[in-house]
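step=encode ok
step=design start
structure_in=
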């Protein structure tokens, strides 16, 4: 696979509106990660715009299974927005801390439930996407699809921990983003793979930034 096949060919069949919307979705996605690094509540409005753009694109493409997963992302983002708004003293920024053992258990349960939910979506996907002539089953999945199920569940657990303002949320984002880079290359989505590379770097910066912020806050309280 050459650079042309990776970065240009997948978009040859797109019209200008599709390309503009996908580019906008990517920009708002990057903005969302940037605001999360800054512990700024705008992480959620920008993130919701990004996921809603992908809901529209996937729905128009007839990929209703993937569309439903992005609706799930949107709902989780609204949940996080509400929690951050409640816990923000200036209605913009929040304080962060480490997750408790109980929250780790809840995150693990959410991960398992997400695995079951996303697997069910993929089970129904051939029928949902095609309706007439569709079927139920998982025989259509390749390794990238199974990894997609895994990473989606990682991201949803990470979204829940981020909604709780927990530092460990970045660990989930880093793992998921790293897996998505080769997965997107395999799918022939070179631009998206570069986007996940950017997300990985930003997630590492986010982890370092939140960890540093927590230490500074702890030092201030002690003094």
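sequence_out=
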């Amino acid at each position: 696979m050459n650079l042309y096949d990776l970065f240009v060919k997948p978009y040859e069949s797109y019209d200008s509106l599709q390309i503009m919307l996908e580019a906008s979705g990517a920009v708002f996605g990057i903005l969302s990660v940037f605001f999360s690094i800054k512990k700024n509540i705008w992480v959620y409005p920008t993130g919701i715009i990004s996921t809603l753009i992908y809901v529209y694109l996937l729905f128009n493409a007839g990929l209703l299974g993937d569309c439903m997963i992005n609706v799930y992302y949107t709902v989780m983002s609204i949940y996080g927005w509400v929690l951050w708004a409640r816990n923000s003293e200036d209605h913009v920024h929040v304080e962060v801390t480490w997750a408790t053992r109980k929250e780790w258990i809840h995150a693990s349960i959410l991960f398992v439930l997400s695995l079951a939910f996303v697997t069910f979506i993929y089970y129904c996907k051939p029928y949902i996407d095609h309706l007439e002539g569709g079927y139920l089953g998982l025989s259509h999945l390749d390794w990238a699809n199974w990894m997609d199920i895994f990473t989606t569940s990682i991201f949803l657990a990470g979204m829940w921990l981020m909604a709780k303002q927990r530092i460990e949320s970045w660990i989930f984002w880093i793992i998921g983003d790293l897996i998505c880079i080769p997965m997107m290359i395999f799918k022939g989505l070179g631009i998206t793979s570069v986007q996940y590379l950017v997300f990985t770097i930003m997630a590492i910066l986010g982890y370092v930034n939140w960890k540093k912020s927590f230490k500074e806050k702890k030092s201030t309280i002690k003094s």
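step=design ok
step=annotate ok -> The mean pLDDT is 85.
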